[in-house]
Amino acid sequence: MNRNDLLKYFSSFQRINVFSHDKDTNENNLSPYIWQVNFNRPEKRNAIDKPFWEELKSTFETLGQSPDCRCILLTNEGNVFSAGIDLKFGMQYFSSGNVNEPIEFARKSVFLKGYINFLQECVNSIEKCSKPVIACVYGGCLGAGIDIITACDIRFCSQNSYFSVKEIDIGLAADLGTLQRLPKVVNSNSWAREVCYTARNFLANEV
């Protein structure tokens, strides 16, 4: 797809704004080959529901194949980069069905395995993207937000940014990539385990 086709394709997205800077709107003198992927659900603190995941995966798969894209900036609208998985959306999957019935429990387990695999594929689409992806974090980055930024090639953040591997607070594992990628990003298995076990907030200057 050329640039105009890409803009037309992305115009239907609701959770993510995708655009490049042309001569008329290029206030920061960015190359038109640099595309900005902007999380645009500030009223929900950029919490990630199923449409959000689907748009994320489609965005990076599409831009990764486009010759009109040479670099991707991942940004956010509002004061929170991402609050992680939308719990209202997530609980529809994690609490549905009667877990006391063996058949229902088995079916639910199979369904959840497929669901988690889908989420992992969405995050992996960032890492697999053939173009360099730069995360520009402003504000809080929690839970699945850390899964996402650790899949990027480069990470920058503002002074007011804070981070938390929040999954343990709701009885989940950070199994969308944080457990595998964060120790490599910070070059410390011990520190990464500590923040994953405690779910405490930490700042960039601690890493």
From TrEMBL:
- Read off the Pfam families from this record: ECH_1
GO CC, one annotated term: mitochondrion
Give the molecular function GO annotations. delta(3,5)-delta(2,4)-dienoyl-CoA isomerase activity
- Which InterPro entries does the UniProt record give? ClpP/crotonase-like_dom_sf, Ech1-like, Enoyl-CoA_hydra/iso
- Which family does this protein fall into? Belongs to the enoyl-CoA hydratase/isomerase family.
What is the protein named?
Answer: Enyol-CoA hydratase
Source organism of the structure:
Nephromyces sp. MMRI
